[in-house]
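Exam review. A common question shows you a sequence with its structure tokens and asks you to describe the fold in words. Practice with the pair below. Do the first one on your own.
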Amino acid sequence: MVRTMHPLLALRRTARMIRHTAPLCDGLPADEEVLLDAPEPWLAPALVAAGTGVYEDAAKLLAASRERAEWETRDRCVARLAAFADARPEWFARWQDAAPHDPDMLLVKAELALRRGWASPARAELLRAASPLIAAAAEGDAADPVPWRVALDQARGTNASHTVFETLWEQAVRRSSHHYGCHLSALQYLSAAWYGSHRECFDFAERAAEDALPDSLVQTLPLRAAYIWLTADAGGAPRGPRAAAVPRERLDAAADRALALSARYPEGDAWPAEARNLLVYVLLRLERWPQALQELHRVGPLATSAPWAALSDDPLAQFLDVRDGVRMEVAALTPVGRARRRDRTR
């Protein structure tokens, strides 16, 4: 099993000592080049326009995703736009006034209601109150799975029964059998932190990954299950008896599957950025240091709040400290003679 000592504690003590050690920094972006939660290039213009009060760019982007049935892009776009509307509501208020029956606006409105409900002490009550908004969003396009992902998120926050969950899940997969957002929401519902168990969580994740295309983010669901397990003693569900522990080989297999998925995308690609950040975390918890460093190269300048915000109020600083700590661990594993030969060959 994985040792109970959290490697991040040791990393933070020594990370800053090596930040400017040149041989360990080669190929990685400088600290000042690293961004937190940078939007995808195709989404950034719409967010910039929304920042000036203009909603039309966002509306066109979502309409195009619906018309082309690009459900993964649509889901990510909805989540980003709802987060932006939560912080900067003016542009979204204009959209609601101008097009109160726009199916794309209604979907963002439902996601925004859920986002605010999850952040409130009156969570369950506010999430239940969002039901008419979710129903309106689902009526916007009968083929769209994204409203059903929103409904699955609502079910988790309102203590919905397994019967209700299964009904929603059936509606979701009927529309898109391998939709990542719906699978991720279902995985969270089935986790020990909510209404399932670690075994249910892993079984669901592994079955879904086996059925998914090689380049689908569904391939990272076992990684998500591994992350849930590894963080269960830090605020999630209790792990219970050690007899119920997840075997180390199952955690390694989840990381290996995510590594294979990550290798299919270019370094610094925004699409798998969050999965790559989670993979770095899991790899360092498993003390697979060389692969963690390899993955940090693939992350490039794109740090994400998950998982680092769960460890620090400053997730970007946490990411940088972890990055330096991984360099240090890899350096400690590298024989001095080999390191010198490598330096001479550069």
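Now try the second one, then compare your answer with the model answer below.
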Amino acid sequence: MTDIPYRLGGVDHVVIRARDIDAMLGFYRDVLGCPVAKHNAPLGLWHLDAGGSMIDLVDMAGKLGAAGGPPPGPGRNVDHVAIRVEPFDAEAILAHFAAHGIAAEAPATRFGAEGDGPSIYLRDPEGNGVELKGRG
């Protein structure tokens, strides 16, 4: 086994695609108790504070939801899981996954539980989205 160039720091955020954004906000914000940390209205994206992690709700009727394709089928409404990693050495991370034959997207700055910071998207063997997220 090769040395992994980072240590896991926990889940940064989970993104859920919502057919009924009002019902989903009602549950996560009002019932579960996750306050809104940020609302990106142009994208139809709500960032909810989940005690140090984030739950992001994407309105399927919004710009980002529409870009993600058709609404998910039954039981398939999670877009990706983001995991904090430290240190965030993009070159080492990309090399690590390339050595394992796993394609990863170029690093980009994205919003998460600790604000804007670097991240890299890839997919697991089942095709599920995974984001490795560094601190800003």
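Model answer, second protein: The CA atoms of residues 17 and 77 lie 5 Å apart. The chain has a mean pLDDT of 87. Full marks require stating both points clearly.
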